[in-house]
Each structure stands twice: as C-alpha cells, then as structure tokens.
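agent> Task received from the user: take the single chain below, predict its 3D structure, and emit structure tokens. No templates, no multimer pairing.
agent> Plan: (1) validate residues, (2) run structure prediction, (3) serialize to tokens, (4) report one or two observations.
agent> Step 1 OK, no nonstandard residues flagged.
tool_call: predict_structure(input=
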Amino acid sequence: MLLSAVILSFDSAAHLGTAVRSLAAECARLQGACEIVVVDNGSRDGSVALLRRLEGEFPSLLRVIRLPVNLGTTVSRNMALRGARGRFVLVMDSDVEVPAGRLATLLPRLAASPRTGILAPRLVHRDGTPQLSADMFPTLTRKLARFFGLRRIEAALPEAPRGPRRVDYAISAFWLMPREVLRRVGLLDERIFYSPEDVDYCLRAWAAGYEVVLDDAATAIHDAREVSRGLRNPRFLLSHALGLAYLFAKHRYAFGRARLYRRLGMAGHGA
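)
tool_result: status=success, residues=271
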C-alpha cells in the first residue's frame, strides 16, 4: 500500500466532508493503493451521521474509528497510526482541503529525500492569505507573542520562498512522513492531551536524525479552528498550557533554544 491517511475529527461536520472528499480525489490520482482512517473523537454535531454517508461513498477506501468521548489528539491519532499499512503516512486535520495534485507532487519529493522525516506544505486560509505553518521551537516569550498576536505575525510573513526549507517544527494539520519514521521515532506522546504534540514529535524526529521540511511551493487550505486560542474554550486552553509545561520539562528548555539546538545537532535556523 502506498499511503495511509489519518484524519482526526471532533465536532467538525462543517469541514469534514470537504477534507475526506478532497483526499479521496487525490488518492484516485495516485499510482498506488491508499486507505483513509477517520478517528471521530466523540463528536456531537452531526459528524457521526456524515461519516456514515462518507463510508457509503467510499466503502473500499474509508474506515472510521468511533470513540464515545474526546480522548485528545494523541491517544486517538495513535489508534489509527498503529494500524497504518502504507509506505507513507499522512496526518491531516479535519479542516484541511487538499488541492488537486498536491500529493502527487509531495510524495515523490519525500521519497527522494531519505533524511526528510516530516514534509509539510505551506498552509493558507481559504482566501489565500498565509498561515504560520511552521515556527521556531516555542519558548515562553514566543508562545505569548503567538497567543496575543498571531494575526499580526501572519500579516508580516515575507513572500514565501519557492521550494523546500528546513524548519524547527511544522504544525500537524498536514504532515507527510515515511512509515519508517513511526518505527524509529515512535508514536505521539500520549502524556500530551491537546498540543503541543506536534512540537514534541518534530523535536524527536530531529533527535533521531531526520529533518523537518516545509515546502513553500506547495499549499493546502486550512480552515483553522484554533480551539485553544483566546478564552473561548478554557478547557482546551488549560490543556495547551499543561502540555507546554510538560514539553519544556521533557526537553529541558523554556527560555532559550541554544542548548536545545546543540543537543539536537542542528544550527538555530528557526522557521
């Protein structure tokens, strides 16, 4: 099998159909078998009924794991990742739309670069404006800047370079990786409930000798829900804060990256 795609869904009926159908169309263009696994994280908004219809549309392609409650982003994703059979694995959010031809472009690039452990496209809003798709490893000051001023940071993003570049980490809305990376790096850290599991995994990939690469020449549409941003959802905000504290303790840094970069054997290049 060429590709195993894992989509995590929680109350995402407004976007999930677009995500699955765009990915199914991409799978039909590829020269190789694919599977799509959607993990529904205890949705209560109509996602369950939508997934039943999608299973009818794609009976040989789509498999659904239904959970009674929200188990967070790591435990639930790992349920699907453990059974991934493809040579390559796609981790994708339910609010992402895959443009036509995107996988046919990215998969050969990943296959041709054995040092690349995670390859991500540049994420854009539906109107085409850029998102902060990758960033430097977070510090306390950087996280505060992002929390209070993400839109200003995104508005100031420079014209995107045309091509791939190494980054500290890419957000996990759209990750492509060889399945071998899962064997060497392991699964997502289940001690993190919701964020920053993507930072942790990229750190571990770098430590295992892989590179994390953002391909600015390739884009994907991300209708970012940002459930932990601001004070709209205190539960997710608290979970994010606890996850960040755990990340700093686990990787032994919080205020600066210099020692972290030295331990990882990488130059401090940021995003």
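agent> Step 4: summary for the user.
The first helix runs from residue 13 to 29.
agent> Done.
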